[in-house]
Amino acid sequence: MRKKPDHIKLGKVLTLLKEIQEQNGSNKGKSFKIQQNLATISYETVTYLEKTPCIHQTPESIQRLLTELSPFNLTKAEKLQLLNHRPTTAVEIQLMIEESEERLTEEQIDKLLDVVSTCLPGEPEEELEEEEGKEEDNQEEEDAEDMEEDVDKGGDGD
Asked: Where is this region: Disordered (predicted)?
């Protein structure tokens, strides 16, 4: 009987790869080509993972999420999907949870999304980008109003 592969959190992958990078820095002289390939793969993976929400996860936030998810009767793989991908829409939930339409009501899906967003820390930059986006929208509205005033006065808009 084949053993099923263990599921792993993206945060754990990030930690392991950083440890490998540190060890490789001290192991110069070993099979150069293998070391070079491993360094490239680990660098690219770490660079990618550092741009995902897993960089902000802590053991405490993960434990809190798992505790909050217990009433939903999800499988380990489904919990891992939620942890790794941090869904924000019902469609994403449907893609991550098998037979979600039969297993969960709309209210439960909304609650699930709320649990994920409150338990897992988001990226602070996302909040800043949203605020900057609102400021840009306000500036565009002001510019449009100024242009309308110039047109009404017979100006050329400059």
From this structure: 120-158
61/40 Cα distance (integer angstroms): 31
**8 Å CB contact between 85 and 92:** yes
Q: Among all chains, which residue has been given the structure tokens 């902000």?
A: 56
Picking from 61, 103, 107, the residue whose alpha carbon sits closest to that of residue 82 is 61
Rounded Cα gap, residues 72 and 107, in angstroms: 12
* DSSP H stretches of helix in 86-123: 90-96, 100-103, 106-119
The angle that helices 59-69 and 106-119 make with each other, rounded to 10 degrees, is 170
| pLDDT tens per residue across span 87-140 | 999 999 999 999 999 999 999 999 999 999 999 877 654 444 554 555 555 566
| Dihedral pair phi/psi, residue 16, rounded to 5° | -60, -45
In whole angstroms, give the CA distance from residue 150 to residue 139: 16
Closest CA to 114 of 90, 130, 97, 78: 90
Among 41, 32, 36, smallest CA distance to 13 is for 41
**Any idea which residue has 């405490």 for tokens?**
60
Query: Structure pTM?
Result: 0.60
- Residue that is written with structure tokens 């080509």 in the block: 33
